[in-house]
Amino acid sequence: MEKDERYYRGYLSHRYVSRRGLFRAFLNASHQHEPLPDNAQPRAPRPPGALPAPQFYQQCNRCQRCVNACPMGGLIVNEEGYPQLAIEYASCDGCQACIAHCPSGALLPQAHFDTGLRPAIGATCISQQRHCRSCIDTCPSQALSLSECGLPDVDSARCHGCGECLIQCEIQAISLTPFA
After folding, report:
1. φ, ψ (nearest 5 deg) of residue 75
2. Are 66 and 98 within 8 A, CB to CB?
3. Are β-strands 117-121 and 174-178 bridged in parallel, bridged antiparallel, or unpaired?
4. What whole-number distance in Å separates Cα of residue 136 and Cα of residue 142?
5. SS3 56
6. In 13-90, which residue ranges form alpha helices assigned H by DSSP?
C-alpha cells in the first residue's frame, strides 16, 4: 500500500497518535518490503479477534469496515487488501470496534482482549545503563518487570499485546512478535 498524504491525514485524525510512532513511520517509510510469493498467505499481524490465518484469509471479504472503525488507527490495509494490525503508530486499546463492524465473521468477539503479539526486548535496550523504565511504567497490564540482570522481562500470561511498550521505547529496542 502506498502511504500518501491521505494515509497520514487519516492517522492524525484519530483520538491518539504517538508522536514517536508517527516519526518512526516517516523514518521507516523508505524501507522496501519483499513481495510474498503468489501461493503464500500474508504473514502480517491480523486484527484482534481474527480467526486462525487460513480461515481468516478465506472468510475476510476485504471490505475495510474494521479499518475504518478503529478509533486508534491501529489497523491498516496491507498490499493484498486485508486488514493488518499496525501498532507502530498507536497502541491497540482493545475496544473491539473492529470486531463489531466486521460483517464477514472473520473477526469474532474475545472474552479476553489479546492481539496475539508479545514484546521482544532487543540487545539495544538501555535499561541497564540508564535505568530506563518507560516500557515497564506504561504497560497497562503490568506484564513487564525488571529482571535481575536489569533488562525488562515479559510475563506472556499477563500481556495482551497492546503495543504500548513498543510505542514508548525511545530507542526502538522492542519488537512485537506472534505469540504461539
Report:
1. -115, 135
2. yes
3. antiparallel
4. 7
5. helix
6. 19-28, 53-59, 65-69
Alpha-carbon torsion angle 43, 92, 178, 79, nearest 10: 10
What's the predicted TM-score (pTM) here? 0.71
Residues 98/76, Cβ–Cβ less than 8 Å: no
Per-residue pLDDT tens over the stretch 113-142: 999 999 999 989 998 888 899 999 999 999
At 136, which amino acid appears?
Answer: I
16 has pLDDT over 80? no
Listed as own residue / partner, the contacts of 101-106 with beta carbons closer than 8 Å and 24 or more positions apart are 101/65, 101/66, 101/68, 101/69, 102/49, 102/65, 102/66, 103/61, 103/63, 103/65, 104/59, 104/60, 104/61, 104/63, 105/51, 105/59, 106/50, 106/51, 106/55, 106/56, 106/59, 106/60, 106/61
Residue 134 three-state SS: helix
